[in-house]
Amino acid sequence: MYDFDQVVNRKNTNSVKWMGAKDRYKNPDVLPMWVADMDFVPPKEIVEALKTTAETEIFGYPLPPLQNEELTKSIQTWLKRRNEWKISKENLGFADGVIPALSLALKAVTNENDSVILQTPFYGHFKILIDDAHRKLVNNFLHEDEFGYELDFDDFEQQIIDNNVKAFILCNPHNPTGRVWSENELIQLAKICQKHDVYILSDDIHSDLIMPGYNYQPLAKIYPEYSDHIITFKSVSKTFNLAGLQIAYYITTNQDILEKMNTIRAESFQPELLNSFATSSLVAAYTFGERWLEELISYIEKNYNYLCSFLKEELPKARVANLEATYLSWIDVSYLNINEEELQQKLDDAGIGVETSSEFGITTPKRLFIRINIATSRDTLELGLTRLKTALS
Q1: Contact 85/326 with Cβ under 8 angstroms?
Q2: pTM for this one?
Q3: How do residues 164-186 score in pLDDT, each as one tens digit?
Q4: Which residues in the chain show pLDDT less than 70?
Q5: What is the DSSP letter of 244?
Q6: Are 326 and 91 in contact (CB under 8 A)?
Q7: List of E strands, the chain
Q8: Under DSSP, is residue 19 helix (H, G, I), strand (E, B) or coil?
Q9: How many Å apart are CA 181 and CA 118, to the nearest integer?
Q10: What is the pLDDT, as a whole number, of residue 147?
């Protein structure tokens, strides 16, 4: 059994979540529950692997990742075991993060001023990379009902037609709403993209963090008819709390895309090699981390249930999205009938640091949301929710 109740003091540890909070929020006593970074110690086998790497005492250039058989084999074995997805080593690429990899792919499959469609609310860095690549953002708003969030397929296709969309950034499972898209939903999206020759860039970084009762499927696996137009992006960073080690990988059957991404990488002087610590951490995570992951998911589910019970009792007008995946709870607080700046002030005064509507593309007046990170100890969660109650009461 792993001790997820342990409260880890992360102050003065060069943590953007904890030390960077002072630059985001005015309250010096803020409790940071914003960025997708867990407060849990990763599996001991990963820590031991990092120590072993350090003990080599020489840190020269490592092998290129595709020449590292242990690395590629561990990825293949993990995907086969977890997702029943058999991939070829030749279809793999590597980067120091999913967002940098997405940027390479976007530039490989589109041209400047091309339109790129997202489902809104969206992860804020998607907009940043679209803007950085000088592409145009097209919003396909998710439909919100009493049961959660649903896709609007008619609007999705019409937006593609009206804007001559060339690429679609899919978030599977979805951040921030926590939806796990069904096979039927994914295939319907893919068929629309196939009909209009739209490339699909599928960010599956949260795909190991699936709550009990739900089933994640990689789109490229369940719809191979269009796999040459799909690039899937994955990482151990969210799953095992290893974001600081900077490692991600991507998968596509389209060799032309892989070559274009490599060319763009070289032209922009992005590193081809992964650092040695990142490589050893991924191998250890995929070799030894499964039991830890299952216990983590159980703990997050209990935290989510506690959050729902707390809000039902203390803030009954707040609407919590059903958590099917991730450790990020999406909460509708539009009932407050205030603007986002006023909401942020209330949260800051109460000393709780979360992310709010506009960071996820929601700019509709009086539509207010917060995203709260519940991958923390129960004591920390209880303190955070108490402060949230103070802010919103």
Answers
A1: no
A2: 0.97
A3: 999 999 999 999 999 999 999 99
A4: 147
A5: G
A6: no
A7: 31-32, 92-95, 115-120, 136-141, 143-145, 148-150, 165-171, 199-203, 230-234, 248-251, 319-320, 328-332, 352-353, 355-356, 369-373
A8: coil
A9: 15
A10: 67
